[in-house]
Amino acid sequence: MATFDEINVDISVVLGASEMPVHQLLRMGRGAVIDLDVNEDDDVEIYANSTLVARGQVVLLGERIGISVTEVLLRGPEFRAPRLDGPL
């Protein structure tokens, strides 16, 4: 039986979103700035395997950037995986 240490989860953090025409995107070069639809104090969204699981705040850790989790989103029974030790 596998242990939890052997299970990988893809974590993504979304700072914001923007929409623009493709021709504008293709003209962008190094140093271009994309304006996002968020303010500096807004929460970011944290996804695990493409599922929204939490929200958080960006924190600076020296020269690195981290995320402080501020809210864990609870899921109802319809989002729980089936039990493997009983009937499906």
From TrEMBL:
<dbReference type="GO" id="GO:0009425">
    <property type="term" value="C:bacterial-type flagellum basal body"/>
</dbReference>
<dbReference type="InterPro" id="IPR001543">
    <property type="entry name" value="FliN-like_C"/>
</dbReference>
<dbReference type="Pfam" id="PF01052">
    <property type="entry name" value="FliMN_C"/>
</dbReference>
<keyword id="KW-0472">Membrane</keyword>
<dbReference type="GO" id="GO:0006935">
    <property type="term" value="P:chemotaxis"/>
</dbReference>
<dbReference type="GO" id="GO:0071973">
    <property type="term" value="P:bacterial-type flagellum-dependent cell motility"/>
</dbReference>
<keyword id="KW-0966">Cell projection</keyword>
<keyword id="KW-1003">Cell membrane</keyword>
<dbReference type="GO" id="GO:0003774">
    <property type="term" value="F:cytoskeletal motor activity"/>
</dbReference>
<dbReference type="InterPro" id="IPR036429">
    <property type="entry name" value="SpoA-like_sf"/>
</dbReference>
<protein>
    <recommendedName>
        <fullName>Flagellar motor switch protein FliN</fullName>
    </recommendedName>
</protein>
<dbReference type="InterPro" id="IPR001172">
    <property type="entry name" value="FliN_T3SS_HrcQb"/>
</dbReference>
<dbReference type="InterPro" id="IPR051469">
    <property type="entry name" value="FliN/MopA/SpaO"/>
</dbReference>
<comment type="similarity">
    <text>Belongs to the FliN/MopA/SpaO family.</text>
</comment>
<feature type="domain" description="Flagellar motor switch protein FliN-like C-terminal">
    <location>
        <begin position="5"/>
        <end position="73"/>
    </location>
</feature>
<keyword id="KW-0282">Flagellum</keyword>
<keyword id="KW-0969">Cilium</keyword>
<dbReference type="GO" id="GO:0005886">
    <property type="term" value="C:plasma membrane"/>
</dbReference>
<keyword id="KW-0145">Chemotaxis</keyword>
<keyword id="KW-0283">Flagellar rotation</keyword>
